[in-house]
User: Fold this.
Amino acid sequence: MLSFLSPARLARNSGRHPWLAIGMWVVLVAVAIFSTGKMDFNDKQDIEGSDSQKAEQLLTELRGEIAPTEQVVVLSVGANVDDARYKQFVGELTSRIRSTEGVASVTSYYESGDEGLVSKDRLTTVLPVTLKGDINDAEHNVGALLALLKDSQRDGFKAITAGDGSISHDLNKTAETDLQRGEMVGIPAALVVLVLVFGAAVAAGVPIVAGLLGILVSVGVTALISRVFNISSIVINMITMIGLAVGIDYTLFIVERFREERAKGAAKVNAIVTAGDTASRAVLFSGATVVVALAGMLIVPASVFRGLAIGGMLVVVAAVLVALTLLPAVLSLLGDRINWLHLPGRGNRNPEADERGFFARTTDLVIRHPVLAIAGSVALLVAAAAPVVTIHLGNPGLTQMPQDLESVQAFKVLDEKFSAGELAPAHVTLEGNLRSAETQQALETLRTRVARDPEFASVGQIETNAAGTVGNIDIVVNGDPSDEPAREAVARLRGIVADAFDGTGTHAYVGGQSAGTNDYVDTMNRYLPIVIGFVLSLSFVLLTMVFRSIVIPVKAIVMNLLSVGAAYGLIVLVFQHGVGADLLGFQQIDTVAAFLPIFLFAVLFGLSMDYHVFLLSRVQERYHETRDNTASVAHGLRSTAHIITGAAAIMIMVFGGFALGDMVELQQMGFGLAIAVFLDATVVRSVLVPASMEMLGEWNWYLPKWLSWLPTINVESGARPAPHLEPAFGAEFAAAGGD
Assistant:
């Protein structure tokens, strides 16, 4: 009933009616461009059901929507707050801030007499500023204040600020710059690789354009979804990275197959249909496996993962749709002009005719020594993964952000001369009968025990509602709220609170940035095995149906775990332990971003299946024809190696471009993705896969009889289901312990 949606039918219709297909995409792109203006980001990292979220909800109930604040730091060279010049500068600045758009209120030491607003050396003072609107408006409303402060530096005085709006503004601007830098590096590098793979500039340009169109459409759809669900701004980085990687790769596979068919003498439309019936089917299945892998992130009860999953899945779907509908139309219009501007001496090549090239020789070597190849490659991957046992998850704090950001500089001054923890205090929120004797005694116990801990700077007064049923106490923690000392202090605070209020009938929750980070890390650790289990289970079922084998899916899972594990280990080695960090231009910090293990697993497992499916589908196709396992493995690797190598090189260039940014989280993400793809395309696909298939022989295609009811999914329409194993082989396998 849905045969009109088959890749071959879509390719045929788009090839015969190219302008209709292109017209539909023009409309879709126009709608997407209009929709991008509707984007509504929310960078709150809520963990559903956590103590920190409950504390946040009670605090909102008590205070209402909390207004965003800024701490304007006035720095002086030589003058102190008692000098008339200092007083005049601060007075004029305070007056100008008060009349600035987006500012609700401001005060100063000279107006309030609060000595807490002056540093001990009396060279620095703080102007507390409250912005208009809520937290979501802070980044927009702080703009005029930032412009004013930049313009106010004179006579040895300088004013900078750190707070809800300025920090968000600086970090998002840096992330946007990193994104642009990644595109400027990744796209030209990908174009160079494509020219080398195709040998023609026009053929190389088509995948780049297709990838960018998929990104644009997915951003537009994500913008509409962001009006309903919380979507983090980092989703744009996710969409761009994944969109460039898969969009270019999918188009690469199909264009190469089209050129092969034309080189064999097929008519233009027939070549388009054949490419649709083979390469496009592989793209469709590969896209489905990537979507399944990314869907694993939806399990995690964290708003940031929901946004990443939605953005990633949308851009993969968009890339598949571009490849299946728009690309055939473009190929129909271009025809053999796809080979225009070719490199000297490079025409259409048939990779199947390359019997003695580099990849053929490598394959022959691996197949002749499969045990040695397996032992060597597994040892290499396990050694690379070894440092993962020392992984320490966390969230990079402001002190680990680019030091040229003024909000970071202001934060460091606050940390050195005041208490930076005042920007993000811990909240102890209470729910119950706060006027009871038991609760009052618990409050005294809390104050006494917190006062003994040097990591806590101060304990505020309790705020309560009129009924005395909801309350809050702010406790200022020294240092960067994301750093380990602050996180450990808040973990101790939770123990103190639990002990103090045990048996009082009052429920107590600890919230704030440090508590939220602790909950975030705990959630990542708890859900990593759940996500892995979900993705592996669905992938196993899909691969079993495609290849009619339980051996191939098991091997694919083991190999992907090895490559992902190696990526984890190398991230820890480089970023956490600093091995080679300076050489590579990366920042060494004590933690790995908490979201990274789940994120990397979901993305890499999906992307690696592109190569696995593309390679094994060719091996399976030849095995059906010849029943010669060794020859089939050699043929599959030889005929796909140049495409897989080119596709992997493109992904490495794209991901590596993002690793060149200033944000340490993006550095870790880009490096992890790039190194994992490199290992997957070289050690795994070029050595481990052919060696293991050669060693296992016909066992590669073993499917127990009790699973024969599973439906068959053909990656290529011409592919035949795997033949039933000979009875003698089935008996051998059963005798060896098989089913």
